[in-house]
Each structure stands twice: as structure tokens, then as C-alpha cells.
Design goal:
The structure holds two protein chains of two kinds. Chain A is an all-alpha fold. In chain A, about 75% of the residues lie in helices and about 0% in strands. By secondary structure, chain B is mainly α. Chain B contains 20 helices and two strands. Classes of the chains: A mainly alpha, B mainly alpha. Chains A and B meet through helix 5, helix 6 and helix 7 of A and helix 5, helix 6, helix 8 and helix 9 of B.
Chain lengths: ~200, ~475
């Protein structure tokens, strides 16, 4: 895969970590998934590869529709501010990505750029979950990690398994659907999708 | 297809079909269909467990399904806990005051989710390859998160949310490990992820080690190993009691079996000592984190949740020590923990009806105000603490002895000290819970108390039989087969 494409995917991931508006983050997350679909179709050498790309596209569109519906149904009366400022979030995300890249040796993907891109996206997803207070952003953090793993699957040398790829896409969609149910219930219960309200259970 | 494979397929179909039936039948028939489905599923699970454990060398190892002693053991445990959870669910539902959905849809939704969760759980130890195992573990999250938040209360939503996000993130990390392994196994495709094929990993050893550690760290979040256990006490405490039992007694060891299979498959590549050391480290850290909480006065279900953290640590140590003594200990510990822990959670339904404050505060003197309930809770806590003749006392002795036998003296000695401290904490809780100062003395019928009493009597017999089994188990073909794995 072209290095520019990989770093474009990484940049989109960083936007999800830093951007303020939920709808904008959904847009970048979806664009990232669609770029992955384009790469998958470009690299497809068999019918199974094409089917896997179509599944990835269906997942991206379904999740985008779900996220936009959630944004529309759960309008915040005032913005849910993250506990960490955007620049600090970006700094934390990049730092974690650099540390993980330094710690993890060569992992067998097609290029070192791809390996770095995968590690960066996984790191960005973790940081999004850790520092974004809005529940919708936390779900997007999980999807960001999965997009990183989709990139890893595309950059694997050898034949990949269609059954596993379809299963992963279905599983992720199922988890996001359940998370959407929780997001709506949390919004109804607390009047906001702010995970800061979810800190009563402590020992 | 062999008879074992047919039995395994029937076992997976039974709860799945029951879930469909429960969704379709009129409301008045939901409980009856659910109970009938539980008897069928439980019966099939016991049959498969008996076949797999009765002839431990007659393995079925396919691309999709594995039926070996480890699968047999877990299927038996999941079948037992699932059956009991369905049987006690009507009492929970009759006492539940709120749910995620309107009351008219509450009962069918609860049983549909419970059966989906049970079906997926039964499939986890039978999964024939790492990819399918990962998918199933991820699917358990989707099914069980809704059950954790089933009451719809703010605390349950918080617990369900934490569980969903933290375990999904952990499983994302584990999936990276799966992808890395797939890159290093010749051939590619689904076959490359079968337990057998993983032993042929041919890329750099460091790549296999990174993949193993990612898998272990990711799945640790689901097993509830410290330090990635944050969801565990909240989810166990806030879920409906029958679901808490399934989470603790069935889900955690089922995912541990996946880790065990990975460890067995990758040990030849990354080194046996290294693979085992990682598990021992998780085991010791889990014990270290759990023990201080066992000394605190806390709500009944939260106490049981921290005890789960301790017991998963013990199991990790047993698998890491890997000697015949330790593996025999693991077998007894998995079964004994499941019986005692499930009983403890089932007792929470009548307990919360007796004293609603028990959801957030420690309970004392239950044996004085409600002797039958106090006896059930005492039996559960006594067994979990490792009070002789509890099978968990036998298993912990075997595992620690196995650690010394394996030449892991420091780890075994550390585990012995931590287990002693944990015992003292739980023994104190046992005394306070049963014969401590009593606060409420209300008469009246408690939902589910009779069922819990019956289960306590059955549990007592099973626990004593299990403790006796500890004396002959280390020298059996079953332990040899478990140590050998499917490779």
C-alpha cells in the first residue's frame, strides 16, 4: 500500500481524537473506512477479496448511518467537553503511538509504514476511549481500533480468511449496536451522553 | 461427522433454538419454554462433558470444532451454571422492579438474551481455531452487556457501559495478536488459525512473542485479570444475579481456556518457560490486587466479584505451573469455583428482597435473621475462602505444590502467602455475614429462597465429592491429556 494512503488514514484517526463535533468525527471515521474499502478493492485478486471489501463497505455505511442517527436523536444541550484539551489529546495519542512503535518489533506486515500505521490507529483508538468524555466518542474509539486492524488485515502477506473477516465485521457492528442502545439509555437517564456521569461505582 | 461432533452441534443448536422459540411463543409460555430448553441444553452439555472426560484421549480436532478434555470440562461447567441460572431466573424476574424495556417485553427479552449468551458461551471452548474463538468471545460481550444493564438503573447502565467499552477495546488488542499470528503461519486462510497450525508459526520468534502478549493482554481484559479488571466488580455487582453467576463461573474460565490453548500452541515457538511465566505474572498480580479488597467490608455481590479476580489469578497460576499437580488443581478449581460462586450469586435474589440495602452495603447476621439464606451464603463463602474441606482448599494446595514441583518456588511461596491473606479476609466476611450483628428481622416469603436452598443442598454434595476427587485426580489420564493439549 502506498505510504501516503497509510499516513492519510493515520491523520484521519488523529482528527477523530481531536475534533470537537461528533458529526465531524463520524465523517472522518467513515471516510477512513471507505479509503480502506478502496484499497481492498484495488488489491483484490479473487472473488473472496471483493466480497471482503464489500463487507467492509457495508460495515462502514451501516455504522455511519447509525452514528448520524444517534447524533440526531441525542442532541446535547451544551457540548460535552473532553477532560483534556485537543492539543494535549493529540500529543497523548502521538506519544502513545511512538512508544508502542518503539516497543513492538517487526510484526510481519507488508511494509514498516503499514506496521506503524496500524500501531498508530490502535493507539489513537485507545486514547480516544480514555480521554473523550462523550460516550459516542468512546464508541468511535473502539471503531478506530478496528479500522487499524482492518488495515493490518489488508497488509498481511498471503491469503486472508473471508469467513473471519465477515465475522469480525458482523461482531463489530453488533457491539456498536449494543453500545448505541446504551448510549441512548444513558442519554435518557442522565440527560447527556457524558461518561463523567458514569463514575459512581468505585471501591 | 463423528458422534462427538454431532453431540457438540446439537448442544449449540439447543440454546439457539430455545432463544428463537422464547421470542416467538405467547407470553404465558415463555417461562415454560425457557425451563424446558434449559433441561435439554443442560442434558446435552452433561452428555458431551461425560463423553469428553470419560475418554480423554479420544479427541475430535477439526477446523471448526474441538472436543477434548478441556472443552468437555468447560462445557460441563457452563451447562451446569447455565441450567441453574435459567432455573432461578423466574424468581429474579418476579422480584425485578425495572428493566431496559417495558414490563410486557421484559421477560421474553431477558430469556432471549440469556439463551444467546449461554449458546455463545458453550461454543467458546469448542471453537476449533483462534479466529472463531475470538469472534465468539467478542459475541459474548454483545449478548452479556445488555444483560448487565438489564435493570436499566443508572448503576447498571454504568456497569454495562464500562464492561462493553473496556472488553471491546481489550478484544481489539487481542485481534491485533490474531492478525500477527496469521501473518506468520504458512498457508494463510482459516486453517492457519487452527490450534494445530499455530504451532507451525515460522516468522520471527519475537513476532510470535509480541502476538502472544497482545493476545494475553487483550483477553486478560475479558477474563478480568488485574490490572485490566476494572469492569469486573461493577458488572458482577450490577447484573441480575443469574447473569452474574454466568459471568463469573462460566464466562471467565471459558475465555481462560482460549488463553490456555494459545499458550499450549505457541509455547514451542516462544519457549515454554516464557509462555508460562506471562500467565504466572498475571496470576500473581491478580492475587495481589484482589486480596486487599477481600479484607474490606463491601456489598455481597461486589465481594464475590473480587473473589472472582482472586480465583482467576489462582487458575492462571495453575496453568502457568503446568505440572500434573497444578493441572489437577486447575480442574478442581474451575468446577469448585463455579459451584460455590454461582450459589453465592443466586443467594443475592432473596438477599436483596430481604434487605435492599445489601446492593450497596455489606450484610451482617443473615444467619440469625434468615437461617436458610445464611446457610447458603455461608456455604458459598466458606467454599470460596478455601475453608477445609472445601474443594478450593484442595485445589489451591495442589496448585501451590505444583508451583514448587515446577521449580517456581518464589511464585508458589508468594501465591501461598497471598492465598492465606485472602482466606483470612473471606473468613472474616463469612463470620460477619452469617453470625455478625443482625439488622433486620422481618418474616415473610423471600423470592427464590426455596430454590436457593435446594441448590445449596446439591452444591454441598457436589463440593464434597469434588474435594474427595482431588486425592486421585493428579495421576489420571485426564490430567495427562489436559497437559498435552490438542497438539
Amino acid at each position: 500500500m502506498n505510504g501516503a494512503v497509510i499516513w492519510t488514514l493515520v491523520a484521519m484517526g488523529l482528527v477523530v481524537v481531536t475534533v470537537r463535533r461528533r458529526s465531524m468525527a463520524v465523517g472522518f471515521l467513515t471516510a477512513q473506512a471507505l479509503v480502506l474499502v478502496g484499497v481492498a478493492l484495488h488489491q483484490a485478486t479473487s472473488g473472496a477479496d471483493v466480497v471482503a471489501a464489500v463487507v467492509l463497505a457495508a460495515r462502514a455505511i451501516a455504522l455511519a448511518a447509525l452514528f448520524y442517527t444517534l447524533v440526531a436523536r441525542t442532541r446535547e444541550s451544551r457540548p460535552v467537553r473532553a477532560s483534556v484539551a485537543p492539543l494535549a489529546r493529540a500529543g497523548a495519542a502521538v506519544t502513545l503511538a511512538l512508544v508502542l512503535t518503539w516497543l513492538v518489533p517487526t510484526i510481519g506486515l507488508a511494509s514498516r509504514n503499514a506496521e506503524r500505521g496500524v500501531i498508530a490507529l490502535v493507539a489513537f483508538g485507545m486514547v480516544a476511549v480514555a480521554v473523550r468524555r462523550a460516550t459516542l466518542f468512546q464508541i468511535m474509539g473502539v471503531v478506530l481500533v478496528e479500522n487499524g486492524l482492518a488495515l493490518a488485515a489488508l497488509e498481511l502477506p498471503g491469503v486472508s480468511s473471508l469467513a473471519i473477516e465477515i465475522g469480525v465485521a458482523l461482531d463489530l457492528t453488533l457491539v456498536v449496536l449494543v453500545a448505541a442502545v446504551f448510549h441512548e439509555r444513558i442519554f435518557a437517564e442522565f440527560g447527556s451522553g457524558d461518561s463523567a456521569a458514569l463514575r459512581t461505582l468505585r471501591d | 461427522m463423528t458422534s462427538r461432533e454431532l453431540l457438540a452441534v446439537a448442544l449449540l443448536l439447543a440454546p439457539a433454538l430455545t432463544a428463537v422459540l422464547v421470542a416467538l411463543v405467547p407470553r404465558g409460555l415463555v417461562t415454560r419454554v425457557a425451563l424446558a430448553g434449559a433441561l435439554v441444553t443442560g442434558g446435552l452439555a452433561f452428555a458431551l462433558a461425560a463423553v469428553a472426560l470419560g475418554d480423554p484421549n479420544g479427541l475430535v480436532v477439526g477446523t471448526w470444532i474441538v472436543v477434548d478434555p478441556a472443552a468437555g470440562l468447560l462445557v460441563g461447567v457452563i451447562g451446569l451454571v447455565g441450567l441453574a441460572s435459567v432455573l432461578v431466573s423466574p424468581a429474579y424476574l418476579s422480584s425485578a422492579r425495572s428493566s431496559l424495556v417495558p414490563a410486557s417485553r421484559s421477560e421474553p427479552l431477558y430469556f432471549v438474551l440469556l439463551y444467546c449468551f449461554w449458546a455463545i458461551l458453550l461454543a467458546v471452548p469448542l471453537a476449533g481455531n483462534l479466529g472463531a474463538a475470538w469472534l465468539l468471545v467478542e459475541a459474548t460481550t454483545a449478548a452479556s452487556a445488555l444483560l448487565v444493564g438489564f435493570s436499566g438503573k443508572a448503576r447498571a447502565l454504568e456497569a454495562g457501559w464500562k464492561y462493553l467499552i473496556l472488553t471491546s477495546l481489550g478484544l481489539g488488542v487481542a485481534l491485533l495478536g490474531v492478525v500477527l499470528l496469521a501473518a506468520g503461519v504458512p498457508g494463510g486462510g482459516l486453517g492457519a488459525l487452527s490450534w494445530h497450525a499455530l504451532t507451525t508459526y515460522s516468522a520471527a520468534e519475537s513476532g510470535a512473542l509480541v502476538a502472544y502478549l497482545l493476545l494475553l493482554a487483550g483477553l486478560a481484559a475479558k477474563i478480568g485479570f488485574a490490572p485490566v479488571h476494572n469492569w469486573l466488580p461493577d458488572a458482577h455487582a450490577e447484573a441480575p444475579p443469574p447473569v452474574s453467576a454466568l459471568l463469573s463461573a462460566a464466562l471467565l474460565p471459558a475465555v481462560l481456556v482460549v488463553v490456555w490453548r494459545c499458550e499450549r500452541a505457541l509455547a514451542p515457538v516462544i519457549g515454554v518457560r516464557t509462555a508460562e511465566s506471562a500467565l504466572i505474572a498475571f496470576g500473581l498480580v491478580s492475587l495481589l490486587v484482589a486480596v486487599p479488597f477481600l479484607w474490606q467490608a463491601m456489598a455481597w455481590k461486589r465481594l464475590l466479584a473480587y473473589s472472582s479476580l482472586e480465583h482467576m489469578g489462582v487458575l492462571a497460576l495453575g496453568i502457568g505451573f503446568a505440572t500434573p499437580l497444578a493441572i489437577a488443581g486447575v480442574v478442581i478449581h474451575v468446577v469448585g469455583h463455579a459451584i460455590a460462586k454461582a450459589l453465592g450469586f443466586y443467594a443475592a435474589t432473596p438477599l436483596l428482597a430481604h434487605d435492599p440495602r445489601a446492593g450497596g452495603h455489606e450484610v451482617t447476621g443473615i444467619g440469625r435473621t434468615r437461617p436458610a439464606l445464611g446457610a447458603s451464603m455461608g456455604l458459598s463463602l466458606g467454599a470460596l475462602s478455601g475453608l477445609p474441606p472445601s474443594p478450593l482448599f484442595v485445589s489451591e494446595v495442589l496448585i501451590v505444590a505444583g508451583g514448587f514441583e515446577a521449580g517456581r518456588s518464589w511464585a508458589a511461596a508468594g501465591a501461598a502467602v497471598l492465598l492465606s491473606l485472602g482466606f483470612l479476609g473471606l473468613a472474616h466476611a463469612l463470620l460477619e455475614t452469617t453470625v455478625g450483628k443482625a439488622h433486620r428481622r422481618e418474616a415473610g416469603r423471600l423470592p427464590g429462597l426455596r430454590g436457593v436452598g435446594v441448590l445449596a443442598a446439591v452444591s454441598l454434595v457436589l463440593l464434597l465429592v469434588l474435594a474427595a476427587a482431588g486425592f486421585w485426580l493428579p495421576d489420571t489420564a485426564l490430567v495427562d491429556a489436559l497437559r498435552q493439549g490438542i497438539s
